[in-house]
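Priority: medium. Attachment 1 of 2:
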């Protein structure tokens, strides 16, 4: 699969997730997810942090641990983070051949690079 195909799929999935998350209410945040350790609030916080982290990595700042920090987040914060990662991957110099992904080790190349 070509990088442009992967990026197109990524954009579609992230945009769809924003659409779905926009319907989440405050009452929904305490709901359990299929992964029993997570509530919807915890999952949104994790996904928000991942969007910020991958956006930072795409811009060459993935080694900064603050970029990956998980904080409480709701639908609005998720939407901001999703738009940030979409913008980062749309920048002309992306994708870099190597990303700093602290969870996987510094300077790891994505499988698609």
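Attachment 2 of 2:
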């Amino acid at each position: 699969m070509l990088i442009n195909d992967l990026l197109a799929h990524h954009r579609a999935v992230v945009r769809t997730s924003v659409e779905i998350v926009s319907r989440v209410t405050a009452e929904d945040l305490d709901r359990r997810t299929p992964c029993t350790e997570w509530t919807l609030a915890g999952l949104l916080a994790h996904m928000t942090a991942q969007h910020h982290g991958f956006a930072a990595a795409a811009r060459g700042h993935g080694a900064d641990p603050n970029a990956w920090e998980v904080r409480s987040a709701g639908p609005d914060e998720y939407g901001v983070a999703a738009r940030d990662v979409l913008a980062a991957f749309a920048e002309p110099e992306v994708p870099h051949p190597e990303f700093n992904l602290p969870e996987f080790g510094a300077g790891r190349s994505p499988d698609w690079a």
